[in-house]
Write a structure and sequence with these properties.
- With 275 residues, the chain is an alpha/beta fold.
- It has two domains: 3-240, 3-Layer(aba) Sandwich (Rossmann fold); 241-275, no CATH class.
- It contains ten helices and ten strands.
- The strands form two sheets. It has a six-stranded mixed β-sheet, with helices on both faces. Strands 2-1-4-5 form a four-stranded antiparallel β-sheet, covered by helices on one side.
- Helix 3 (98-109) packs parallel to helix 5 (142-154), helix 4 crosses helix 5 and helix 5 (142-154) runs parallel beside helix 6.
- The longest helix has 18 residues, at 172-189.
- It is globular.
- The termini are far apart.
- This is Energy-coupling factor transporter ATPase.
- Residues 5-239 form the ABC transporter domain.
- InterPro entries: AAA+_ATPase, ABC_transporter-like_ATP-bd, ABC_transporter-like_CS, ABC_transpr_CbiO/EcfA_su, ECF_ABC_transporter_ATP-bd, EcfA_1, P-loop_NTPase.
- Keywords: ATP-binding, Cell membrane, Membrane, Nucleotide-binding, Translocase, Transport.
- It comes from Tepidibacillus decaturensis.
Length: 275
């Protein structure tokens, strides 16, 4: 796999404030579904803004699709290929109908009208909103509004989509809708997904998890490797998956039980073999 995003000693500091990101070095690979977990104030959202050139590093570099984000001449190339779905769905709506909103970015690029119509139609189909294309966005649920934002990004044919706490203001149904779309885009379209959240259960969808705390990447691995580390999650202020918590409790009671069962279905299956 080729790295689609490279961080090299990335640090960031807001004016007259302490550093928010501290010497981050890692590669994010094409086609991965990556979750970045961390408590509030850990630097997750600042990192997201550095990845598509909204913010420039104080020190170090961010390379996106082989382009340095400090290269102002090519910044629009980066933003075309790295889309961001933000936390508040209402802040991302810019047009009076769903169809017009999805077309907004394409219009700014000067895409020919027939090609634009096809891309809008395809994007709405991928997020299952075709029947709402003439609907005014304020009539939609929070989850549907986020899917409109996702469709607008899909229409631009991105290589990476960043979900920056994009489920945090949604109810469980809306969260499930958005996460389902993210997973489908990754598996069916090969789009690299970077999902930033503090909801540990959502990280089970990922191929790879990074944990951030106080501006540092403190852990990097698969869901099984990361989410089974009960002490690490608790020290970072993150919830421990139910399966992991129960497995540890059984082991403390003297049962021979694996503590790296991070999914509830794995835990239930293991219970049947318990002696």
């Amino acid at each position: 796999m080729q790295p689609i995003i490279q961080l090299r000693n990335l640090s960031f500091q807001y004016k007259n404030a302490e550093r928010v990101l501290n010497n981050l070095t890692t590669n994010l690979f094409e086609g991965q579904f990556i979750t970045i977990l961390g408590p509030n104030g850990s630097g997750k959202s600042t990192l997201a803004k550095c990845l598509n050139g909204i913010l420039h590093p104080t020190d170090g570099v961010v390379i996106v699709d082989q382009i340095d984000t400090k290269n102002e001449d090519l910044i629009w190339h980066i933003r075309q290929h790295v889309g961001v779905v933000f936390q508040n769905p209402d802040n991302q709506i810019v047009a009076s109908t769903v169809e017009e909103d999805v077309a907004f970015g394409l219009e700014n690029q000067g895409i020919e009208s027939s090609a634009m119509a096809k891309r809008v139609e395809d994007a709405l189909q991928k997020v299952n909103l075709e029947e709402y294309k003439h609907t005014e966005p304020h009539h939609l649920s929070g989850g549907q509004k986020q899917k409109v934002a996702i469709a607008g990004i899909i229409a631009m044919k991105p290589k990476v989509i960043i979900f920056d706490e994009a489920t945090s203001m949604l109810d469980p149904i809306g969260r499930a809708e958005v996460l389902k779309v993210a997973k489908q885009l990754n598996e069916e379209e090969g789009i690299t997904i970077l999902h930033i959240t503090h909801f540990v259960q959502e990280a089970l969808l990922a191929d790879r998890i990074l944990i951030m705390d106080r501006g540092y990447i403190i852990a990097d691995g698969s869901p099984k490797e990361i989410l089974s580390k009960k002490d690490l999650l608790e020290e970072t202020g993150l919830d421990v998956p139910i399966a992991v918590d129960l497995a540890h409790r059984l082991k403390e009671k003297g049962y021979s039980f694996h503590t790296d069962l991070v999914r509830e279905e794995e835990f239930i299956e293991a219970l049947w073999t318990l002696r």
